[in-house]
Amino acid sequence: MKEIYAGNEENIEVWGVSHAGHVVLPKHMQKPYKSIKRWFSTEGEVEHKMRFLEKFIPKETPLVLIGHSIGSYMALQITDKLKDHNIVHTYLLFPAIERLARGINAPMLEALATYLRQPFMALVYSVHMVPAMLLKRVFQLAVRMHYGAGKETFVQNILSLTSPSVMRAIIDTTQDIFKKVRRRDDDAIARNLDKLTFYYGLNDHWAPREFPMQLRRMFPRSDVRFCLEGFRHAFVVDAGREMGHIVKGWMLKQNILPSKHGHLTAVSQLLREPSSSLPVTTTKTTYPMVQRSATTIDITGLSSSTLQPDSSSSSPVESLGYLENTNRTL
């Protein structure tokens, strides 16, 4: 996010959109789980993000979507369905848009979401009882050991995983996604082909190499690209800045970034809760309010849904609001 924003501070706006229910909300924003459960599904997650765009992004604003992993599936669906908005391009990074059950991690995740759900949730409840300060210190040490210094921004997001409500939402969403995301939506791709860029990893455990090859055979004119830098599927862990630099380069070459006197809004991760019945927490980069010429939105993926980008790509300002509260803006 920060890489795309850098150098265009007066011209662009960056928003971040993640998955519904994947973080602990302040108590005054919390809702009973049963009243919000419908959002923790494939369709609910797509609608969650569409509601956000309809509420906060003017229809005439040129809009760029950036989806990662399962977020690519959602970005594709939004591109196809949100016809009233001016979506000029959609980037699908390490897209998980078909046959998710074939992923290397799929059997383990499906097991946790089904017959291992009760014992796993019992473990989560047990960990949740550990004092937060102790858990934080343990996670800080683990993050430093695995990822080195400068990755402490992950700690708070990892702590969210110890929340039973967050883990329940993640499991419900994951279970439904495995059921629904099976066949590639060729109809949606065909209708929006000129707006789509697909960026596949060479060793992606969610998308074997045959997937982009089949996509290219089906759509010879498709913009299918391959990651030659060796980034992992969850690139936000250690290559967020580099990936941002690549996407920014594409936007410049395709004349999507605005001129010096234009304005681009870049949305990179819708955080937290959906719709009229749910509060939403969002991150936004601050900038002088001038006439917009475009917006970029990045929707996170399954493997990193509970991780914010690292400190090199996170947005500096966090604000709280309600999607249906017209008196409060983000």
From TrEMBL:
**Listed InterPro entries:** AB_hydrolase_fold, LDAH
One cellular-component annotation, GO: lipid droplet
Q: Which GO terms describe its molecular function?
A: sterol ester esterase activity
Q: Where is this region: Disordered?
A: 302-330
Set out the biological process GO terms recorded for this chain's protein: lipid storage
Q: Which reaction does it catalyse?
A: a cholesterol ester + H2O = cholesterol + a fatty acid + H(+)
Q: Per UniProt, which keywords does this protein have?
A: Hydrolase, Lipid droplet
Q: Where in the cell is it found?
A: Lipid droplet
EC assignment: the record states 3.1.1.13
- Comp. bias intervals (Low complexity): 302-323
Q: Sorted alphabetically, which PANTHER family does this protein's record hold?
A: LIPASE, LIPID DROPLET-ASSOCIATED HYDROLASE
Question: Which family does the record assign?
Answer: Belongs to the AB hydrolase superfamily. LDAH family.
- UniProt-recorded name of the protein: Lipid droplet-associated hydrolase
Q: Which organism is it from?
A: Varroa destructor
Taxonomy of origin reads: Eukaryota, Metazoa, Ecdysozoa, Arthropoda, Chelicerata
